[in-house]
Amino acid sequence: MSQRLVVSEDGLYEVLAFLFSSAHILVNEPHLYGTFRLIDGASRLIGFALESGQLEDEEFLRRLKEDVDQRKFLLMTDEETYFKLLEESTRAMARQMKKRSDAREGDS
User: Fold this and answer.
1) What is the reported pTM?
2) Are 60 and 96 in contact (CB under 8 A)?
3) What does each C-alpha distance from 52 to 41, 47, 102, 108 come to in angstroms?
């Protein structure tokens, strides 16, 4: 698997500004908003990586971003389903990380 950079410098600064400003504003926001800001930041980072056109395999990240973007606003109306999004996306990411690790070990 490649170690190349897949986010532009502008994209990096945009995500960093989002994360720092989110951390600052969370001091006064309800605690669940932090989860929203984290998955929104992850979605933004995925978007920049997809825009780069440099990913070896875009399918997993494209599907994950679509799912997160479709369901993240459920925090405001359906917390139970929103919590399922958090659980499912975490599990999907863990499975993908294992798959990538296994592939690296197979390449050795």
Assistant:
1) 0.86
2) yes
3) 17, 9, 25, 28
